[in-house]
Amino acid sequence: MSAKRSTISSKIAEFKKEQEQSDDYHENPLLKLSKTTKKEKQQAKSSQFNEKILSKLTFNLSGGISKSALRRRKRKEKEQLKPKLGDLWSSLPESTVNIVQKNNEREPSYVQHTTKAANLPNPQKQTGHAKLLKTENEHFNKVLQNQEFKCTPFSALKQAISQNMKK
């Protein structure tokens, strides 16, 4: 009976070894059972999320200095880097330059103020284009009814066009 027990115990031991080996290797690795449980995965995820949130600087951890104070400091540092006018003035040579006015230059005279032209219609917009067409038609009708046009049409047209160009 002891021989039977030893063979049974040896068979059980062999079976356990086979089971351990089969846990390491599986024919289809996609069907391999995961060794971590669902709860462990959830806990790992939540702990990673908490660490991620704590790592971000959403709180005022900058030694009690506000954002505006930091901005003021940066602005001051930038201004200190800029060259100052006094430094530039002292670095210039001390030689003087004499400016001599020529006699033939004219003194500035009074320039009379000219009034701006009235707001003319914009020919590139539809309403302005329509207004310009209307005024040009009226002007052309006046030229056609003029006595000069009846005598010499080409010279009257030339004169009207030149007057229109002056405007």
Automatic annotation (TrEMBL):
<feature type="compositionally biased region" description="Polar residues">
    <location>
        <begin position="111"/>
        <end position="127"/>
    </location>
</feature>
<feature type="region of interest" description="Disordered">
    <location>
        <begin position="101"/>
        <end position="128"/>
    </location>
</feature>
<feature type="compositionally biased region" description="Basic and acidic residues">
    <location>
        <begin position="13"/>
        <end position="29"/>
    </location>
</feature>
<dbReference type="InterPro" id="IPR028160">
    <property type="entry name" value="Slx9-like"/>
</dbReference>
<feature type="region of interest" description="Disordered">
    <location>
        <begin position="1"/>
        <end position="49"/>
    </location>
</feature>
<feature type="region of interest" description="Disordered">
    <location>
        <begin position="65"/>
        <end position="84"/>
    </location>
</feature>
<comment type="similarity">
    <text>Belongs to the SLX9 family.</text>
</comment>
<dbReference type="GO" id="GO:0005730">
    <property type="term" value="C:nucleolus"/>
</dbReference>
<feature type="compositionally biased region" description="Polar residues">
    <location>
        <begin position="1"/>
        <end position="10"/>
    </location>
</feature>
<comment type="subunit">
    <text>Interacts with the 35S, 23S and 20S pre-rRNAs and with the U3 snoRNA.</text>
</comment>
<comment type="function">
    <text>Involved in ribosome biogenesis. Required for normal pre-rRNA processing in internal transcribed spacer 1 (ITS1). May be involved in the movements of the replication forks.</text>
</comment>
<dbReference type="Pfam" id="PF15341">
    <property type="entry name" value="SLX9"/>
</dbReference>
<dbReference type="GO" id="GO:0030686">
    <property type="term" value="C:90S preribosome"/>
</dbReference>
<dbReference type="GO" id="GO:0030688">
    <property type="term" value="C:preribosome, small subunit precursor"/>
</dbReference>
<protein>
    <recommendedName>
        <fullName>Ribosome biogenesis protein SLX9</fullName>
    </recommendedName>
</protein>
<dbReference type="GO" id="GO:0000462">
    <property type="term" value="P:maturation of SSU-rRNA from tricistronic rRNA transcript (SSU-rRNA, 5.8S rRNA, LSU-rRNA)"/>
</dbReference>
<keyword id="KW-0539">Nucleus</keyword>
